[in-house]
């Protein structure tokens, strides 16, 4: 069984201020002669440490969230650029197909004209 003196010593080992807490929420030093007061103080200090840890964890997570949102914005820009390039590629591929068809038609027309021209020269 722990003695009141041990609890008081433990309570003295705990820092008495917690910068994350408003002044009105700071643990009030215990009445060292009352075991319950010391226990309440120790519990309050434990909760203050947990509060500090939770605030730290929240800050870390918010920082991570900020970084992920920045990555998301960058990914969206890249995705938009990819979509633009895919559309340009589709358009250029179609234009290329059309130009190849026109070239083939003109080549055929040229061959026909050449044949017609030779036949006309041969007839004369």
From TrEMBL:
InterPro entries: Map3k7cl (IPR042800). Keywords: Coiled coil. Residues 58-102 form a coiled coil. The keyword Coiled coil applies. One of its GO terms (cellular component) is cytosol. PANTHER family: MAP3K7 C-TERMINAL-LIKE PROTEIN. This is MAP3K7 C-terminal-like protein isoform X2. It comes from Xyrichtys novacula (Pearly razorfish).
């Amino acid at each position: 069984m722990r003695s009141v003196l041990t609890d008081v010593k433990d309570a003295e080992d705990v820092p008495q201020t917690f910068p994350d807490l408003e002044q009105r929420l700071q643990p009030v030093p215990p009445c060292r002669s009352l075991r319950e007061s010391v226990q309440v103080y120790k519990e309050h200090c434990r909760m203050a440490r947990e509060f500090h840890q939770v605030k730290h964890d929240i800050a870390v997570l918010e920082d991570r969230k900020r970084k992920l949102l920045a990555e998301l914005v960058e990914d969206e820009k890249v995705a938009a650029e990819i979509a633009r390039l895919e559309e340009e590629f589709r358009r250029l591929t179609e234009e290329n197909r059309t130009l190849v068809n026109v070239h083939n038609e003109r080549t055929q027309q040229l061959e026909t004209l050449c044949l017609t021209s030779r036949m006309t020269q041969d007839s004369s």
